[in-house]
Structures are given as C-alpha cells and as structure tokens.
C-alpha cells in the first residue's frame, strides 16, 4: 500500500468575517462566518508517508523550517494519530498565487494538506470531520473544505465547529476581483490582532447575526445586492473594530479603491467590496460588469486577480513528486 | 445710547469629540467634550441694532440669504427677547481662515455673534449664560466662549449645558498643525450624520468617560503624551462610529497623513493626531517639534495651518463698519 495522495483546495474570501475566538487553541470563533471559495486560485499539496528519516516540508519550492514547518508537522501528527501510523512524511505544496498578492494561503494550504493527508493514510473521513481537522490547522481553512459558498458554524467545542456548503460553486456565478494594493508594512498577525477585544467588538457581535442572515439569503436567492450590501457592512464593521484595537490594515490606496467602488455603484455599475485583514480590496460583481470594473481599475494602474466561485477541497490524480 | 459692538472668537478643535445629541433643538449632547481654541484663527463680528428696515447679515463680504441668514436672525431674536428690544440689526462678520480650509466657522461665528450681540444690547451676561446662548446657535460654539482649553459639560437641559475653561490659553503651549486635505466631495452635514445611531455609537459612549478623564488630566498636568494618546483614541472611535453609519470623511490622503504621524512618532518626534468631521488631519505637538513636523508635511506638498491655544471670545474696540 502506498501512503501518498495529492489534493487541491481554494482560498476563500469571507463575506461575513471571522473576528475573535472563544478558544485560542481549538480556534473556536465567536461568530459564524460565510465565505466563497476562490476557484481560480489554488493550493496543490502532495503528502507521502514513508520511511523517511524526518518530516520534509517543501512549500513553493522552498524547504520549510522553524515554526512554518512545526505547524505542518503538528497537523500531520493528527492524521498519524488517527491512522495509528508512525511514518514520517514528505509534503510538497504549491500555490498558483503569489504570497505578495495578499491572499492568505493558510486556508487553502491547510485544507489541501488535510485532504491529502487523510487520503494518503486511507482515513475515511466525512466532510464534517475534514472541516474540523482543517480548522485546527488554520481557522478559516475549515471553510475551504466544502463546495462553493460555505458557512462556518461556530459551534461550542472541537466537535461541532466546522463549515458546511450553503450552495455549490455553480449555483451563483459571481466574480471576486481582487484589487492588489502593495503593502510595504509588516503584516500584523490576525491571530494577535484578534486577541484585542474592545467595546466595539461586542457591538459588532450584536450586528453580525443580521449580516449572516442577509448574506446567506443573498447567496441562496442569487441576489448580489443583498449579499453585497451586508458583506460591505460586515467588512466596515470588522475593520473599524480592528482600528479601535490599533490595527490599521488600510493603506491610502485602499481608501481610494473603496471610494471608486462606491462611485462605480452610484453610476450604475453594480459592485460591492470586502476587505480581509490586509490592504487589498475584493470587488464582487456579476459577469456582465466584470470587464468594465477590471478596465476601471486597470486604468488606475492596479493589478487585479479575478476569480469565480470554487469547488470543494478534493483529491486529484496529478502528483507534485 | 449706541447699540453696537464688535467681538472676536476662535474656532476650536475637539480632543474628545461631540457626537450624538440628546435633544436636537436645544443641542444637548450625549457626552461631554473637550477642546482647545485655535488662537491664530478667528471670526470677528460687528453687530449694530438700529432703525434698519430689516436685518442685514454680511459674512465674508457677501450678503447672507436663505437659511444662513435665518439662522443668524433666529440667534439675534434671542438677544432682542432678552433685552426687550425690537430694533433690526446689521451684522458684519469676517473669518481670517478660508472656508475651503475645512475649519468649521460655525463655532467661532456663533461665539462671536453671541458676544457682540450681548454687548451691543448691554446685556450683562455671565460666561455660562453666553456659552449656553452660543450653544443654541451651533453646539460646539459653546466651547469657543471660555478661555483656552474648555470642557462642554453636557448637562441635561438648556440651563446646564455649557462649557467651562479647564485652563487658560497660556497654561500649555501646544500647537495644532492642520494638514489641509482638499475635499472634492460634498460635505455631509454633521447634524444629519449624528442622527444615525448604531451599536458602535453606544460602544463609544462606554469609552468616552475614560477619554475625557485622561485628556482633562493631560491638559491640567501639561502632559502631551496623555492628552494626545486619548485624543487619538477618541478620534478613531468617532470616525469608526461614523463609518458604521456610512459616513466616510477620510480621503486617501487622510490615511496617508495618519500613517505619517505614526511614523514620525515611532521615529522619536512626538505628535498626535485628531480629525474633525472632515478630511483634514490636526497634528498636535510641542513647540520644539513644530518646525520639523511642518517641514515633513510641506515636503509632501500639503498646506498647513498653524495655531497655538486661543483666548476666550471677547469684545474688541475695532469695528467692521
């Protein structure tokens, strides 16, 4: 038996954000979140368990060391425990999007690692179990396990905090145009930032169930206006909570794009924005407005990453080694 | 007896902001606020009550009409009532700062109008009474009546909502360097914006007494670090509350200046920022750092208005007609 498998998973963009944890170690969040997998972007990961001397982790053609490697090894240990297997592993992982793009690779990375490890060890895990395991690697990775549009049900313990698909990728053809803002500053870790609660954080929690309701409904009813309006509201809310903790992810150009999106919409081109814990602006739109919006931001000399909804994390035949 | 007098008053910059009213008509706020009069900027106003056919209002050499005139006439009526006087008035008012500077002239304008009207009609009013009357013209005008650094005690009724001096202008030599950001958008009226309560507004109220305590203490103890730290916190808080109501006063360049201020501070030049309901950034500093900071922003091609603390609203000999 060959303990080797390869999987692909997509990063995701949250329409209702995850901010604040109930349990740091288990990554149990304080609110549900909803996201869309980004189909044009992916991480591919091959895992082989064999009689290696040590675990070897190669990410984007570089050997991982230190905490980056430890985090992967810790994740592999979970699968070795489940399979009662003590073999060391070789992990090779590649993203088709640059690190400098500001798209977090931890969600797609840990979702792909989870799928590949489970498959390599012939563990017969449910989607729920896979999502729980991915969450332990990186919180939002649980949302990259199911198909298309997913909701992370926060739960209260390790066993009931996982993501489910609200609708498959084909359900609603919307586009995420990521306007890339170069960020010269050192990233603030969102884990560190999230620990800084303040009164605004609790005000956000009071609003978040409304945002969840309308974003979920917007996805199910294919209503971009509903989805977008509440996704924008949720994004402003999260960023203002962060600002009150001294975390400013916005750059001057972020604000420029925010205002451009509002101008476009005011002038009849339907689009909505959301922003993760970084400076890039994600612009959500229907297919018919995609080229016009891309044209507008290209004119302003911004680089754009385009993505449609993506499928679930899945095992593929192709291997990276 | 000649019913004519001229007064001068300074605009003010709030270190702890006023956002949200308990009573719209009486302008009773939902929190105390603390500000500094801007000594280098002023409004001068001459008021004469005489047998004119109608009230005449001339602001910055232009005859005021419509709502701008009505607001002044309504204010004059209060003084006519107090003096049992039915004479019409001529009002001439001038600012030494341009409207396009983004410095609100309503505070200095109504403070000067209040002082001049009271004096012209020989009303012997206390500073408290003058502050209350100024408040009825424009909320923050009450803070431009007393000397230097003032606190608006919110009160609960018309009779106990007024400002007092925490320290005279000479007490603490700090500078406000106003970095002017050109704003091409139509201003959103702060009165209109303030009516939009949201959960974040109440989170702000929960924090504001702490900000008041430390800003007050910072002024009294001449501790710019304490004053500035909490003034910045209060400013971020107000702006994020506004953003959650859809009010974005910041321009991309506002964010650029915010980050420059933090860079300056990180590199050892002590300065703090605050922003009113507009895009300009007010940078607070001690005299010894003033030229360096001005140099920095001049380099970046921003226009700067400089001001030291200003005195109280006062009657002067010079007349504008």
Mean of residue pLDDT of chain A? 94
Strand order in space, largest sheet of chain A: 8-7-9-6-1-16
Query: What composes the largest sheet of chain A?
Result: 6 strands, mixed
CATH topology of the largest domain in chain A: Ribosomal Protein S5, domain 2
Continuous helix count of chain A: 8
Number of domains of chain A: 2
CATH architectural designation of the largest domain in chain A: 2-Layer Sandwich
Distance between the termini of chain A: 17 Å
Shape of chain A: globular
* SSE run of chain A: EEEEEEEEHEHHEEEHHHHEEHEE
Number of strands of chain A: 16
The proportion of residues forming helix of chain A, as a percent range, comes to 25-40%
The oligomeric state is homodimer
Uncertain residue ranges of chain A: none
Question: If interface size is counted as residues with C-beta under 8 Å from the partner's C-beta, which chains form the largest one?
Answer: A-B, 24 and 24 residues
How does the helix and strand content of chain A classify structurally?
Answer: alpha+beta
Strand fraction of chain A equals 15-25%
CATH domain class of the largest domain in chain A: Alpha Beta
Explain the overall architecture.
Two copies of one chain form a homodimer. By secondary structure, chain A is α+β, with helices and mostly antiparallel strands. Chain A has two domains: 4-168, Ribosomal Protein S5, domain 2, CATH 3.30.230; 175-307, Alpha-Beta Plaits (2-Layer Sandwich). Chain A is 37% helix and 24% strand. Chain A has eight helices and 16 strands. The first copy, chain A, has helices spanning 66-83, 106-120, 127-137, 190-194, 199-220, 224-243, 252-266, 287-299, and strands at residues 4-9, 12-16, 21-23, 28-29, 33-37, 43-50, 56-59, 62-63, 88-95, 149-153, 162-167, 175-180, 272-274, 281-285, 303-307, 314-316. The first copy, chain A, has a six-stranded mixed β-sheet. In chain A, a hairpin with a 4-residue loop joins strand 3 (21-23) and strand 4 (28-29). In chain A, helix 2 crosses helix 3 (127-137). The longest helix of chain A is centred in the middle third of the chain and has 22 residues, at 199-220. Chain A is globular.
């Amino acid at each position: 038996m060959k303990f080797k498998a390869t999987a692909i998973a997509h990063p995701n963009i949250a329409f209702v954000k995850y901010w604040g944890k109930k349990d740091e170690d288990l990554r149990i969040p304080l609110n549900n979140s909803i996201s869309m997998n980004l189909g044009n972007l992916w991480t591919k990961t091959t895992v082989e368990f064999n009689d290696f001397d040590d675990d070897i982790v190669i990410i984007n053609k570089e050997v991982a060391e230190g905490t980056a490697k430890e985090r992967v090894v810790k994740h592999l240990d979970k699968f070795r425990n489940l399979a009662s297997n003590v073999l060391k592993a070789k992990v090779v992982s590649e993203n088709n999007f640059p690190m400098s793009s500001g798209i977090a690779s931890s969600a797609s990375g840990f979702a792909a690692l989870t799928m590949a490890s489970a498959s390599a060890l012939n563990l017969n895990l449910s989607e729920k179990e896979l999502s729980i395991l991915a969450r332990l690697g990186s919180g939002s990775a649980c949302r990259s396990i199911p198909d298309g549009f997913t909701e992370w049900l926060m739960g209260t313990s390790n066993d009931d905090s996982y993501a489910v698909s609200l609708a498959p990728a084909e359900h609603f053809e919307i586009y995420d145009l990521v306007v890339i803002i170069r960020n010269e500053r050192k990233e603030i870790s969102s884990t560190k930032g999230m620990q800084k609660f303040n009164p605004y954080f609790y005000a956000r929690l009071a609003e978040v169930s409304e945002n969840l309701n309308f974003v979920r409904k917007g996805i199910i009813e294919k209503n971009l206006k509903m989805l977008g309006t509440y996704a924008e509201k949720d994004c402003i809310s999260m960023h203002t909570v962060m600002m009150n903790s001294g975390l400013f992810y916005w750059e001057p150009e972020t604000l420029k794009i925010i205002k451009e999106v509002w101008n476009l919409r005011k002038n009849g081109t339907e689009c909505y924005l959301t922003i993760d814990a970084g400076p890039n602006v994600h612009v959500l739109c229907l297919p018919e407005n995609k080229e016009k919006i891309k044209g507008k931001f290209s004119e302003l000399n911004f680089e754009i990453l385009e993505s449609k909804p993506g499928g679930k994390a899945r095992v593929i035949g192709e291997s990276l080694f």
